[in-house]
Structures are given as structure tokens and as C-alpha cells.
Specification:
By secondary structure, this protein is mostly beta strands. The chain is about 5% helix and about 40% strand. The chain is built from five helices and 65 strands. The strands form 25 sheets. Strands 1, 2, 3, 4, 9, 10, 11 and 13 form an eight-stranded antiparallel beta sheet that branches. Strands 8-7-6-5-12 form a five-stranded antiparallel beta sheet. A three-stranded antiparallel beta sheet has the order 16-17-18, with no helix packed on it. A hairpin with a 4-residue loop joins strand 36 and strand 37. The protein is elongated. The two termini are about 40 Å apart. Keywords: Calcium, Disulfide bond, EGF-like domain, Glycoprotein, Repeat, Signal. One of its GO terms (cellular component) is extracellular space. InterPro entries: ConA-like_dom_sf, EGF, EGF-like_Ca-bd_dom, EGF-type_Asp/Asn_hydroxyl_site, EGF_Ca-bd_CS, Growth_fac_rcpt_cys_sf, Laminin_G, NELL2-like_EGF. This is Neural EGFL like 2.
Length: about 800
């Protein structure tokens, strides 16, 4: 142990001295300076002063690395499956933008994106089959704070680090970096129109190594064991010493027992084909001379001496003997025949004549050659492990599978020892055992069989010591197991989600293959249809309100000329008339008198006056009958009618070639104006809207904009958002509520008699894991399972 201690003591290399081979580093801002030459980019103070930092702002910029520089950078990445993307950044609040994008046409080979709207980090890369794989990591980077971000990829393994903390580690498809020559490299955007990053970036790097994150966080590069590691090593050494002492004791006991056997004599015999042979006894087995030695049969192939035969005879095999003997010979059509040989000759007449050399005479059978004749049944020279084959003119021998011939006619064959010759397929934790004509893979003691060729310590699938999803199949492997999702489900096996054709829309969840469970307010096979509660008669609003259908719900909105009195009743009963005259909201000109009406007003001309009927709008006079477009909304048209201003949205006529596509996006037919749904399987035309993850999204000329879904007001103290829904519901039990409208006048008294204000929390006395809260005079306590 004392000899081991010095080996474990070492000194950590200085962090500042950490270097990277230049051939493995793509330092974007070192080789490319997007300063004054690029609109919307300026050099600013960074997280540190050791490298340049750039501020990306505005929506009219095109930061693309020049082609020659880009190709020099990308050459280091081509064909690699291990690399790290690292960047130090400060992203504007709620901004959604691309940090770095390497793409060719529609193929995204590598793209890193941060979505502030959805609080996600997205990694896009090219996988096998030219498929773009997207891995989404829920995390908020767009918070106007500095962060160190790195994504490390090693074949099918991806790890996300933020501020030197490992946040996610996943198994993904293997990236394919077969990057074409004319591939473009963009910084701070996907292209000139999409994915504009807003904020500051510094140290944008691609390192062709899986541990590239150590350039940001050198402390993660531990080349020496920590104190905890050292303690573990010492414990392991002590355990090994204990095992060594016990093993030595057992060996000593075994040695004593073996010494007691020295006075015994045990003769070991050999049993072959039912015959028992004693020690050193020899015998001939076909073409082998065998000996019984210490209970083991040892055989050697018989070596036949060279044979010189007199004229008229040739060497030939004789039944029952291994080596050739001189046999009388007959020449027939240039061929040497010995006793018993047959030859078939096809006559031009179509007959087949069968010649046979027998008793030193050549005989011929003038009948047609026998077809299907069983020569093997008449007697053959094929011995054990050799099969007799019927040919046209006689029998022939062929060694069985797993055997090889001992002589040229295949009559005698020997077993091939696949184990000794390395011709077996036995894998880990097995021992190859030769068998006649084949081999077996025997599991080592304590291991169980997986298949014919491999074994493992134990079956994790049968013992349920696996992490496969309930909708996955478990396959036991050497040293572990693998998981594969069942048909109809998708995922990596540890997590399997039901697969629905086209996926579920509007917040619906796929509960089983091709079955969507819709959130409240939606219906359809894919939850694609919003239930219009207004048109289907589910709602009856007050006469002073109108029903407005919204994605997933509705509400009764006060009509023009009315406003809510603060009671916010669901059916609009709380709507009351606005006195536009008193509130100064009328548009009557100075020559008329404003007269309030229920739900509106009237501009009346005093008796005896000649009134113009003009209107006052935005402190400007608009003449009676005048029509204009609002300065701050080019899509709204207003007119002055007898002192009253009437405004409406522009009517969209998609047949009109001069239609304003900004106001009428639904009239935009261009493919470039279409948008791809977040799931990557659906496309939307410009102007289309949909709901996704409690956000209402709209496609506008190729750009997707999403915002929080509008929810009906919940006029109560305690609210709860049910699972699978987006909007809060009122609940009566304060302990079930997710949100509380705290009233500081409603206090609680804890177990010590201390007064607690609503909204405060404390640990219950005598416990470490029970947290209590005061909710408007109600005490709610719960146990934190992560604390136990």
C-alpha cells in the first residue's frame, strides 16, 4: 500500500496553460471579423478581454463568412463525428435566434439555436440518409446574462454544458459531416431573413474533439484523482489485500490435500466407440495411429510410404486399408482403371454403355445406363464421417460438414478442431469446446446464455433491472441490455412516446399509437379543430356583449360603446355603457353637441345652426365623408360620417393583383412565405395560425411568430392549471392551487404561534423535508420527495 501512495500523488496542470492543437480548432472570430463591414454588427466589450466580442442587433443584416475562409474552416470538420461547439454569449431577453449555422441549400449540417420564446436550446445536424435531426434541450439562455455554452458530440453521444455544468446527456443519431464544397457558414442567423440572434457573442469555436468544453472550463479536465477518488482507490486496495489473504489460505489447504494423494495410483483409461483402452495402449483408427495417454486419446495421421509399382499395375486404395497398394490396371480410353472401377460412355446412338473392370477383365453392359441406381447400397469404401454419394457410374465419398479428408478419395475424414484453429464464433464470457463436426460455446461459471455464442452475468431484462420504457422491448446483452420501442412508439427505448400519424396539434397529446387526447376546446382525430363555442350555441352572452371565439375557449366581450364595470362576469352582464361625451371620447366637431346614447353617442347640430358634420380624430379635423388609412396601422381604414369616426380592417381580395400582402398574408402564394410547423412534418401558408405548447403561433411571410395563448380571466383567489391544459381554473381547495391571489390581511399562525403572512413559507418544526405555506389564512404543508 505504501508503494502505491506516491503513484497517486500528482499536481494539476495550470488552467491557464491549457492549449488546443490548431489543426483541431475552428476559432471563428479569430479568422473572421464581422465588424464594420457588416451592417447590424459592432465590436463591444465582452465577458473577458482576451478575445473579440461582437454585438448582433437589428433585422437587416447578413453575416456570412466569406466562402474561401469558410471552406478553410469547414475542412477541419469534414468527415468527423466527434466535435464540440462552444460559445460565450449574452442573449437579449426572449430573443429567438441562431448562434451558428452550417448549411447547404435546405440541408443543415450543423446549427445551434437558442429560443427565448420557448426557453429551448436546439441542435440541428445532418444524420444518415440526409435526414436533419433536431435535438431540443429545455433551457433558458435568452435572459440578458452572460453564459458559457458548449455542446459536445461523440458519435451517438451528445452532452450540453452551460456555465461549466453538465445539463443534459443523451444518445442521438450519429452526425454525418459530409459537407459539400460550396456549403455556407453563417454567424448569428440561419440566413439573411431567418433566425436573427440579438445580443453579444464571444469565443465562437468548433473543436474537433469530444472534450472541447474544457477550453471554457479547464477545471473539468481532471488528470489527477480527487480526494474522494483517492479514498476510493485506498479502499479498493484494502479489499484486494483481503481477497489475496483468503485466496492464499485456500491454496495452502488445497496443496496439503494434493500431497496426500501422492501415495495413490489411479490408472486412467480411454473409451473410444464403445471400446476401452488402457494407459499407453495403441490402436489404429482408420488413417490414424492412436494411443491412450493419461486418459486422453492422442492420434497421429498415418504417413503412407512412397510406392513403386511394376508394369501393368498402379497405386490404388484397397478396402479396409489406409494406404494405397499396387493393383492390376487396365487402360480404357486413355484412363487407368483398377479392380471395381466403372466408366459410363455415351454412344452417338443415344445409348449409355456401362464398362466395369472386374476380375482382370473389362465387361460392358449394352443396356441403357441405370438411372437412379443405388451404388452406395451395393457396398462402398466410405468410412465414418464420410458420406457416400451416388454418381452416374458408381459411388463416391464426401467428408461431412466439420470434417476434412485424410486421403484423396475422401473415404477417411478427420474432425476439424474449430476451437484450436480459431474457426469458431464464441464471444465474451464463453469457452469454446470442440465437438465432432462442430463446436459449442459453454458459458463461464456464473454466467447465463444470451444466444448460441455469447453469455452475460445475469439477465437484466428478466430480473427487471433495466431502464426500458413500459412501451419498449428489453434485449439482454453482454454486460448490460438494450431497449427498443415497440411498434407504434418512438424514442430511444428508455423513453418511448406514442407515434401518431401527423402528430397531435393544438396541445393534444399522443396517448397511444394514432390516438390523440385533445385539450379542452379542441376536437378531431389530430385535435386540429377548434370548438367554436359561439357558433355552436354553447354560449349565451348578455345583449351588451358579444361572444368571441378563441383557440380552445371563448369569452363574452363588451360591445363597442360598453366597458366592464370591474366585476368581469362570464356572460357579459358586467358590461355597462360608456358615456363618450363625458369621457371626451367622442369625435364630434366643435359645431355639434355630443349626446350620449346606450352603447354609443350622437353628434347633434343645435337648432338654427348649419353644421359641417366633420370629425375630430387624433386632434385633426376630418371632413364629413372623408376616408383615410391610420398612420400607425396601414391595414385599417376609417371614415367620417356626420361627426362619428368609423374604422374597420381592410377587406382582403386575394383576386386583386395589387392586394397588400402585409395586411393580407393569407393572399401570399409564394412557397418562400410558407412556414414549417415545430414538429417538422406540417407546412402552413402565410396567415395561418395554430396552437403549440400553450402558444398561439402565426406564419407571416415565412417567419413563425408565437405568443402566449390568451386565457379567460379567473376571478378567484385560488387557481390551478390542469395537466394537459394551458389556462388556469378556479379551485376551492387552497392546497391544490398553483397560484394564489394573496391577501396580506389573511394571515396564518404556525405551530409556534408565529403569525405568517399569506404567501410566506417555512419548514415545519422538527422536520427537514416538510414545507408549509400560508395561502390566504390556510396552512398547506407538503413533503419534498427530493429531500428524503
Amino acid at each position: 500500500l505504501h508503494a502505491v501512495l506516491p503513484m497517486l500523488l500528482c499536481v494539476l496542470a495550470p488552467v491557464a496553460g491549457l492549449g488546443v492543437d490548431p489543426s483541431l480548432l475552428i476559432n471563428v472570430f479569430k479568422d473572421f471579423s464581422p465588424g464594420a463591414d457588416f451592417k447590424g454588427v459592432s465590436q463591444v466589450q465582452g465577458f473577458h478581454d482576451e478575445s473579440r466580442a461582437y454585438l448582433f442587433q437589428g433585422s437587416s443584416r447578413s453575416v456570412r463568412v466569406p466562402e474561401e475562409t469558410a471552406q478553410r474552416m469547414l475542412q477541419k470538420l469534414r468527415g468527423k463525428s466527434e466535435f464540440t461547439v462552444a460559445v460565450t454569449l449574452k442573449q437579449e431577453l426572449l430573443n429567438s435566434g441562431v448562434i451558428l449555422s452550417i448549411h447547404h441549400a435546405e440541408q443543415r449540417f450543423l446549427e445551434l439555436e437558442s429560443s427565448g420564446q420557448k426557453s429551448e436550446v436546439r441542435l440541428h445536424f445532418q444524420a444518415k440518409g440526409q435526414q436533419t435531426h433536431t435535438e431540443i434541450f429545455p433551457y433558458t439562455l435568452a435572459d440578458n446574462q452572460w453564459h458559457k455554452l458548449s455542446v459536445a458530440i461523440s458519435a451517438s453521444h451528445v452532452t450540453l454544458y452551460v456555465d461549466c455544468n453538465r445539463i443534459y446527456e443523451r444518445v442521438v443519431s450519429v452526425p454525418v459531416m459530409d459537407i459539400p464544397e460550396d456549403t455556407s457558414l453563417w454567424i448569428g442567423q440561419r440566413n439573411s431573413a431567418h433566425g436573427l440572434f440579438k445580443g453579444v457573442m464571444q469565443d465562437v469555436q468548433i473543436l474537433v474533439m469530444p472534450q472541447g468544453y474544457i477550453t471554457q472550463c479547464p477545471d473539468l479536465n481532471r488528470t489527477c484523482p480527487t480526494c474522494n477518488d483517492f479514498h476510493g482507490l485506498v479502499q479498493k486496495i484494502m479489499e484486494l489485500q483481503d481477497i489475496l489473504a483468503k485466496t492464499s489460505s485456500k491454496l495452502s489447504l488445497a496443496e496439503e490435500r494434493m500431497n496426500g494423494l501422492d501415495n495413490c495410483y489411479c490408472e486412467r483409461t480411454c473409451s473410444v466407440k464403445g471400446v476401452t483402452y488402457r494407459e499407453d495402449q495403441a490402436w489404429t483408427d482408420g488413417c490414424k495411429n492412436c494411443t491412450c495417454s493419461n486418459g486422453t486419446v492422442q492420434c497421429e495421421t498415418i504417413v503412407c510410404p512412397p510406392l513403386e509399382c511394376p508394369d501393368g499395375s498402379v497405386p490404388a486404395y484397397v478396402a479396409g486399408e489406409c494406404c494405397k497398394n499396387c493393383q492390376p490396371m487396365c487402360l480404357f480410353t486413355g484412363q487407368e482403371l483398377v479392380e471395381g472401377d466403372r466408366r459410363a460412355v455415351h454412344h452417338p446412338s443415344g445409348l449409355c454403355l456401362l464398362y466395369e473392370f472386374k476380375h482382370l477383365q473389362l465387361t460392358v453392359d449394352f443396356s441403357v445406363c441405370p438411372k437412379g441406381h443405388d451404388f452406395c447400397a451395393e457396398g462402398n469404401t466410405c468410412m465414418e464421417h464420410s458420406d457416400c454419394l451416388n454418381l452416374e457410374a458408381g459411388a463416391s465419398c464426401s467428408c461431412k460438414e466439420g470434417f476434412r479428408p485424410l486421403r484423396s478419395d475422401n473415404a477417411y475424414c478427420e474432425d476439424i478442431d474449430e476451437c484450436a484453429e480459431g474457426k469458431h464464433y464464441c464471444r465474451e464470457n464463453t469457452m469454446c469446446v470442440n465437438t465432432p463436426g462442430s463446436f459449442m460455446c459453454i458459458c463461464h461459471t456464473g454466467y447465463i446464455r444470451i444466444d448460441d455464442y455469447s453469455c452475460t452475468e445475469h439477465d437484466e431484462c428478466v430480473s427487471e433491472q433495466h431502464n426500458c420504457d413500459e412501451n419498449a422491448l428489453c434485449f439482454n446483452t453482454v454486460g448490460g441490455h438494450s431497449c427498443s420501442c415497440k411498434p407504434g412508439y418512438t424514442g430511444n427505448g428508455t423513453i418511448c412516446r406514442a407515434l401518431c400519424d401527423g402528430l397531435c396539434l393544438n396541445g393534444g397529446s399522443c396517448v397511444s399509437p394514432n390516438t390523440c387526447m385533445c385539450t379542452q376546446g379542441f376536437t378531431g382525430k389530430r385535435c386540429e379543430t377548434d370548438i367554436d363555442e359561439c357558433s355552436e350555441g354553447f354560449v349565451e352572452c348578455d345583449s351588451r356583449a358579444t361572444c368571441v371565439n378563441l383557440p380552445g375557449w371563448y369569452h363574452c366581450e363588451c360591445r363597442d360603446g360598453y366597458h366592464d364595470n370591474g366585476m368581469f362576469s362570464a356572460n357579459g352582464e358586467s358590461c355597462e355603457d360608456i358615456d363618450e361625451c363625458k369621457a371626451g371620447r367622442s369625435t364630434c366637431a366643435n359645431d355639434t353637441v355630443c349626446f350620449n346614447l346606450d352603447g354609443g353617442y350622437d353628434c347633434r347640430c343645435p337648432h338654427g345652426h348649419n353644421c359641417t358634420g366633420d370629425c375630430i380624430h387624433d386632434n385633426k379635423v376630418k371632413h364629413n365623408g372623408q376616408i383615410w388609412v391610420l398612420d400607425n396601422d396601414r391595414c385599417s381604414v376609417c371614415s367620417c360620417q356626420m361627426g362619428q369616426v368609423m374604422c374597420r380592417r381592410m377587406v382582403c381580395d386575394c383576386e386583386n393583383p395589387t392586394v397588400d400582402l402585409f395586411c393580407c398574408p393569407e393572399c401570399d402564394p409564394r412557397l418562400s412565405s410558407q412556414c414549417l410547423h415545430q414538429n417538422g412534418l406540417l407546412t402552413y401558408a402565410s396567415g395561418d395560425t395554430w396552437t403549440e405548447n400553450c402558444q398561439q403561433c402565426q406564419c407571416l411571410q415565412g417567419e413563425v411568430d408565437c405568443w402566449p395563448l390568451s386565457c379567460p380571466p379567473a376571478d378567484c383567489d385560488f387557481t390551478l392549471v390542469p395537466e394537459g391544459e394551458c389556462c388556469a381554473h378556479c379551485v376551492s381547495d387552497p392546497c391544490q392551487a398553483h397560484s394564489v391571489r394573496n391577501d396580506i390581511t389573511k394571515t396564518c399562525e404556525d405551530e409556534h404561534g408565529i403569525t405568517r403572512f399569506s404567501g410566506s413559507s417555512w419548514l415545519k418544526h422538527g422536520t427537514e423535508c416538510t414545507l408549509c405555506q400560508c395561502k390566504n389564512g390556510h396552512i398547506c404543508c407538503s413533503v419534498d420527495p427530493m429531500c428524503l
